[in-house]
Amino acid sequence: MAFFFLHPRCPPHYPRLSGHWVMSLLCAPYLYNNVRLYTRKQHLVDVTEIFNLLHWEKKKRLFKLAYVVVLLFFAVFWMIYSALEDD
């Protein structure tokens, strides 16, 4: 039953449960973080201070990379699932 809420092709009388909004909800935290960094002018790294912040910056960028890989996995999964789905 839980899979029904994420299914991309629900009956038309369930527009909010169609699943098309799931990927945008999953991408919202990443977008929020990028906008927040840009508005605080922290989206650029100062080359003179990079070695003082290297450990923290490395952790942050690896976390963002893992998040994007998970989003890519979900996108590829839904694409393959939609292509192979029997109507």
UniProtKB/TrEMBL annotation:
UniProt GO BP: vesicle-mediated transport
Alphabetically ordered keywords of this record: Membrane, Transmembrane, Transmembrane helix
Keyword check for Transmembrane: yes
Top-level taxonomic group: Eukaryota
Membrane topology: Multi-pass membrane protein
Compartment(s) of residence: Membrane
Pfam annotation, one family: Cornichon
Cellular component aspect of the GO annotation: membrane
Residues spanning the membrane: 65-84
Family per record: Belongs to the cornichon family.
UniProt-recorded name of the protein: Uncharacterized protein
Species this chain originates from: Gossypium arboreum
